[in-house]
Amino acid sequence: MTTPPAFRTGRVYLGWQFALAHPDPGPPPRRPVPTEQEQLNPGWLAAQRREEGLLTRYWKVLAGVCLAAAAVVLVLGLAGLLDPALTGLGVVVLAAGAGLAVRAIWRGRRDLQATIDVEERRVAGARTAQEGQLFGQLEDHARQFRSWQACQQMFTRQPLWYPVVLPDGIDRVDVAGGTLAGWSALLTVVGSARLAAGGEVTVVDLSEGAVARDLAALAGDMGVDPLVWVLPADLPRLDLGVGMPAEPLADVLAASASADPPADGGTDPARDYAIMERVIGALGEGAGIANVTAGLRALAQVGDPRDDVEAGLLTAAQLERIGRLYGRAAADRVVIERAWALEARLRALDRLGSDPLPLPRSALRVIALDRGGTTFGNAMLGTYVTVSLTHLLRQAPPGRPWQHTLCVAGAEKLRGEVLDRLCDVCEGTRTGLVLVYRSIPAQVRERLGRGNAAVAFMRLGNAEDARVASEQIGTEHRFVLSQLTDTVGASVTDTSGWSYTSTVGTAGSASVSASTSQTTGQSSGRGHTRADAAPFAAHTGSSSREASASSGTSDSESITNGISASTSWGWSTSTAVGANESLARTAQRSREFLVEPHQLQQLPPSAIIVSYASPEGRQVVLADANPAIVTLPRVSTLSLDEAGEAPDAGFPAQTAAGPEQEAAPAGADRWRAPGDRPADGEEAWDPAGPPGENPPAAAGEPNAPEDRPGRPGPPVPVSWRSKKGSPPPNLGPPPEPLDWRKRPGG
Question: Which of these, 440, 631, 488, 634, lies nearest to 182 by C-alpha position?
Fold first, then answer.
């Protein structure tokens, strides 16, 4: 089973990038085929002998005639027909002529043999030169094969997926677009990496789509028991904001009541804050939100205040103080209308913290809105949760960057000033912030990438949103999706459901007590929170942070030669030659979108385009937020930039070599002769081996262990020192026998 790569503590992971750092080296180099061996031509030899026979034919005839005549003279002398002296003289003369002829014949054959010997020596020299050339070609082939083998091993063992991490100094990530499945994948990658690195994660899910459900399930497998509040059902067990002093509570409630303002935009936050502060002051210390809404009803003269007195929400003294807050002047109607609107918006919070439970500390906290709530109520609840977290973060001391990560899904439902306050307080306390927007409305468009933030774009269905995103990304070269991103990305469509499982339970339930007993941790209170039931105040208060343009070029060349000649029949002749040459070059620059709007509309669910500013300029990276990529066999622990700076990262280091032999790939010592015992954890050499590899040989000889290809490394030139009589290096099946000195048919 493949071990997932370890997440580094100080890194924020957004997804994975597919890249080939080492290209495919292609097929192995072909072994050189020897040329036809030089040999003595039988036709030439026959022609030489035929020519020698023609040249000595006269001498052969002369020798034969002389010998025949000498025999006749000798016979005649013996028969007494010739004088003995004359017979002897004739025999001597004819024998001398025959001797001269034989001598000439012998000299011709000697010269022929000398010519043949010269040709044989030339053929032998040519064969030796061919053999040396063949050895040189085989040496080059051996070097090329080893270089190819090293490149092939690096290609087959290289990582295919590199993590996409945020550079140091980025405080926020704005994610625009995406589907619920894509959000689930992104939150799972970001949250699981931070949890694995020992950080804390808080998710505010305003999407009503349970996009953090997969993250909560994965956190359970990692040994982290998440705390999940599903609103509005878990409002009685949510202690966020409970126990605040009068002034902060008035600020939080006034900002929460401004969610989804009227179309006329006539609300004044300062006036709302003044009304809330006066009502809370009239109620006194310890007033809850239900008491505040009851006071607002009394101020707005809504219903019978005696019902709230009987319910224990107000006392007679509090009711009397509220009645004296404002007089009966003309401003009465304005105050009554505003108090009525505030009560109508805040009444959804009446059950907040009414049934608290002692909850254990957890590194993962999820507050999610459920579709069971009303549209208006969920909008107000989302704003209240965000504003309350903003207030708690204001009380927290600065920590290490991204040690505490806050993710807000569906942030386009919040007003612009609420987002600004949250961004400012997260930047001041070094809390990592991830804002996920379904669309790009006006208040989001003005804030995308503002400050020290990175912008990430996922699938954008709306054409106008896609156009805005394309302009935000910029204009240079294009991106190409990997097939795996498009194929696997579709498989995460059904990863998120439509409901959460509440982990906080109800008061006195057995599941809650079991969850409490299984979770260990220590919580500390800070600010104005209750020590027995304030997990959010304790957790957040003590949280800390961890440390092409394309151009077109056209060349045009025009050469005009004109020659005119005129000749008259008189005494003068004139010739004129004119030449004109011009060379012009024009270059036209054009800029295209890095990502076209229609490409953003067609992105796979888990694809994400990350854009951020760097000292080298704006960087744009295409990533895949599919969390299952971490389980693939070839996933790097270094980003693509880090792997480029350290190309040998993930591979064994190289060993030093002498001047005559360059550095061999690391791990070459694992190619041992039979009988050598491999080291622990080292792969033993198979004598059969894959085809095309050398058998082991003694050190200092061709195919010696130190010359064997090993683990991936740079191409290694090999210095072969082949001597005459030694076989050429055998890399791969030979096309011909290796004994090149063997004569044909010998």
Answer: 488
For residue 239, what is the enclosing H or E element?
none
Burial class (CB in 10 A: 0-12, 13-18, 19+), 394: middle
Q: Are 409 and 204 in contact (CB under 8 A)?
A: yes
User: Residue 652: CB partners within 8 Å, gap ≥ 6?
Assistant: 666, 667, 711
Average pLDDT on 543-550 reads 35
Q: 221 in helix, strand or coil?
A: helix
Q: How far apart are CA 275 and CA 246, in angstroms?
A: 12
> Do 249 and 120 lie in a common domain?
no
Show Cβ contacts of residue 531 under 8 Å, excluding neighbours closer than 6 positions.
525
Residue 666's CB: how many other CB atoms inside 10 A? Answer: 17
**Total count of domains within the chain:** 3
pLDDT of residue 488: 53
Which of 386, 275, 381 is CA-nearest to residue 267?
A: 275
DSSP 8-state assignment for residue 162: E
Name residue 570's beta-bridge partners.
none
Same-domain pairing of 150 and 178: no
Structural domain including 414 reads 174-230+365-556+598-644
**DSSP code for 40:** -
Query: 736 lies in a domain?
Result: no
Average pLDDT, the chain: 74
Pair 389, 444 in one domain: yes
- Ramachandran quadrant class, 715 (left: phi over 0; alpha: psi -120 to 50; beta: rest): beta
SS3 content of the chain, % helix, strand, coil (to 5): 40, 15, 45
Amino acid, single-letter form, for residue 420: D
Token pair of 387 as six digits = 């504003």
Lowest mean pLDDT among 127-131, 333-337, 391-395: 333-337
Element (H, E) at 600: helix 597-601
* Lookup: tokens for 103: 């001598």
User: Can you point out the beta strands (E) in 615-712?
Assistant: 617-624
With 0.85 as the threshold, say if the pTM is over it. Answer: no
Strand, coil or helix: 618: strand
Is residue 519 domain-shared with residue 386, that is, in the same domain?
Answer: yes
3 state DSSP class of 556: strand
Query: Which residues are CB-neighbours of 736 under 8 A, at least 6 positions away?
Result: 33, 34
